[in-house]
């Protein structure tokens, strides 16, 4: 993939994440802070499909943005063909790993496994 | 020949009228023999118009002729005498001692360049990256060989790139760039500013190929916009702005 395409995704995910996190914060303000962190409240959020979908989207956006940022930092720290490939594929794998783990929590909650 | 010798003797014995003097600290380092750089100090008299290069040449003439320094035109045109002067990348021939407002003037080789000896550094990387971005007008061969056609431009079209054409390849921008310090594959502000110089030139047809060259993992996107490249340029070139304008092309904001 061209670096300009990657950076367009990088900037796009940042803007979208800021917008969605703002919605998420506003949603949390509908109840008290301590109350919103209660176990039952968190489970209820995951079971409410539109809200769960938004949380999943935030997870994907932040994972893409964050791991690409990490890739850029690591590429600037050290150079070399093998190192750069390892960094790029490592960050990609970590990104998918984090998305999968976060999605698993939401899916398990909706399937009544929690 | 005798006359030349006489002039040389006269110059060497010219009494110095200045009452002011500075301590000139010169970094000495020979990679073949030394483990690290060491400073040698010299007391040099100066006048209001004395440049740092003249002070270094004074050291070479009267104290230690083995100091390695690269210079040529002495008028900020050739870009040979770039060095760190009191911690900032500057041209030695363009920097007056009086404007430094310090009793101690420290000269070191430029950062982000391999040292050949003392103040002289290798320019291979700068010239390689400069060459890589194709620093020339790209047109069809038939157009270039034709005697009938001139590539006319309006003043507005010239205005788009003219400041970037003032680059003298002195390397001060690359020396000041924080990304150059850590990323050995980064193209660098000098080459990127030159890429913009040709991309913005209405006579050029090589925009796509140049943008392709700089649009890679160690290309234009690694610039952090510290702006130090523009701050140190002795010719008023603004590489940081050129880089941002190039990004505009790559992000689709500019045609």
TrEMBL record, chain A:
Main location: membrane
Keyword Iron: yes
Source organism: Nitrosopumilus ureiphilus
Lineage of origin: Archaea, Nitrososphaerota, Nitrososphaeria, Nitrosopumilales, Nitrosopumilaceae
Alphabetized UniProt keyword annotations: Heme, Iron, Membrane, Metal-binding, Transmembrane, Transmembrane helix
Subcellular location: Membrane
Transmembrane segments: 12-31, 51-74, 86-107
Gene Ontology MF: a single term: metal ion binding
Protein name: Succinate dehydrogenase
InterPro entries on file: SQR/QFR_C/D, SuccDH_FuR_B_TM-su
GO annotation, cellular component aspect: membrane
Automatic annotation (TrEMBL), chain B:
Protein name: succinate dehydrogenase
Organism: Nitrosopumilus ureiphilus
EC number(s) reported in the record: 1.3.5.1
Superkingdom, natural source: Archaea
Pathway: Carbohydrate metabolism; tricarboxylic acid cycle
Keyword Ribosomal protein: no
Domain 4Fe-4S ferredoxin-type: 158-187
Residues of the 2Fe-2S ferredoxin-type domain: 20-110
Pfam families (alphabetical): Fer2_3, Fer4_8
